[in-house]
Give the backbone structure.
Amino acid sequence: MGGADDGLDIRATEVVVTNEADADEGADGETAIPPTIVGERLWIFQCKREKTLAPMRLREVVRESLKSFKQPPYGFVIAVACDISKKARDAFRDEMVARGVEEFVIWAKGELEDMLFQAKNDALLFAYFGISIQARRRSLTTTLRSEITKKKQIAAMLGDDRNSGKLVLVRDPSDNHYPKVSKEGEPLPRWFTCMAISIRVPGTLTVLYREHLAALTPDGERWAAIFDFNSAKTHVDGELEGLQAWSVKDEDRFAPSPYDFWNEYISESDKATLKVFRFIPLDRILAIDMIGDGYYPVPHILVEWDEVWGPFIPKEKRILDVGRGYGGSYELYADESKRVEIFPKPLPDVEAPIPLGFDNTSKRRLPISEPSGGKLSAMLETLNKDQGPTPNPKEKAIEQLDWSQSKMQPFIEWRDKIALPVFSEFVGRLRAAGHTARVVVRSAEARNGIAEASEAVELKIKLSNASKNNPRYHPFGSVRYSMSPYSGWQLKVWPTPEAKTDRSGAPSRRPIEEISPAMIEAEVLAVFERLVAQHKNSIV
C-alpha cells in the first residue's frame, strides 16, 4: 500500500472457510454434508528497512502501525531487514498480547532468507536477486555426475596398474602446436608424459610428475637430489619405444647420463629416488582419450591449462623412495630443511678424475705378496696388449670418517690396519697401469629401527679398456667387506663367480681379525680375473 494508508505497508483480508466439526448422520445412514461458514480476517503487514531495531523502537513501530484501529486486526506481521534480538522479540510479543492481536510473527533477516531459499519461492529469488536455487542444484548435480564419470574412466584406465601407475599424456587441447616440438624462443609445449597414480585424494588425479636420482647421508637423516635430470624419462621413453611411438627419436644410447655417476659413486645403502607427485583437479579435466595417437599411443588426459600452474593445483608432494635398507625398501618425506649438497656441481662425467669427497684411498699401503703381484702384473700386461694405456687420472683423497662403535671396533681396527692398506696398494698399481680404482670407507649409525649401524671398506675397479660394442661401457668390479653389530661381517664381490647370480654375501663365523692380507689379495685377484674375462668377451 502507499504511504497514504496511515503508514501501513500492506492491509490484507484473509477469507476463512470453516466446516462444523461434527456432522449429523442422515436417516439413510449416510453422513450429511455440513454447512459452510465464510468469514474474513484482517492482517496488517509492516516493512522496515533498518540496520537495527531495538525493543523501544519496535514498540514505537507497533504503536504507529495500529494507532488508527479502533479494533485490533486479527494478525500482524512485521518484516525487517536486520536481525532481531530476543529482548526485541519479547517486547513485540508483549505489545501484540496487550492489544489483543491473535496471530503475530516477525520476519527478520534470517527468517526472510530461509523462506526465499525454499523451492516454492525460487521464482521470487530469481526475479529480485538473479539467484536460482533450482538451477544451482541442477548445476551441482551435473558437476557431481561428471566427476563420478571421470573417476570411473580413470579407475578403468588404471586397471591393474594402480600400484605402479599408468603412463599418460597430459595436454592442453587448445595448444595448436601439438605435437610439434617447440623451437628456441617459442612458448613451451603444453603437454607432457607422466604416470597417473590414483584418485584417492578427493577431487583430484594424483600423478607422478618427475623422478630424480637422490642420495642419503650415511645417518639417513639428510638428502640430496639431481634436480636437473628427470630419471622417469628413461622409463617413459622405453615404454613409448615399445609402443612404436613416433615421438621417440633414435638418440645416442651411449650418451653421458647422471646414472653413470650415481651408480659409480653413491653407495647402494645410500641410494634413493626422489618422487615428485602433483595433483590435477577433476573439474578441469575436459575429456579422457583412452586411445591416444601415433605420437603418444597412450591415454590422453585433456586438461584446461592455468597460465601459472598449468594443469595442477598449487601443491606438490615429495617422497624419498629408499630402495635398500633394514627390512627392505621404505619411504621418507623429503623435508626441505634436511636437504644438503652431496652431488658435485656441475656433475662430472665418470671418465673425469674422481671428485673430491668420493675417494678414501689411503697413502699408507701394505705391499702385496710377490705371487699376487706377479699374477696382477700378468693380467695387466694382457690388457695393455689389447688396448694401449690411457692417461693416469689424478689421485684425490678426503679425510676418513672417524666414527666407531664398541661392537665394531675390531672390524674398524682390522680395516684400518689390513684391508685399507691392501686395497690402497691395488689402487696404486691399477692407476699406474691406466685404470680407474678407488677405496670407499663408509660408516653409518643406526636409523631409528630402519637400518642397523654398519662399517664398510670397498675397493672399486673400472678397466680403461672399453667395450667394442659400447665405447662408454668399461668392465667394473668391487670387493666389499662390511660389518654390523647383529649380522656380523660380510664379504660381497662383483662380478660374482659363475656359480652365483648376485652380489649377496653371507655372514662369516670366522673372526674378521683372521682375514689375512693374502686372503684379501686372493679375492681382489679373482674379481680382476673375471673383469679381464669380461673384456676378452666384449672384443670378440
Observations:
- Residues 133-158 form the longest helix (26 residues).
- The longest strand covers residues 36-48.
- Residues 494 and 500 are 10 Å apart (CA to CA).
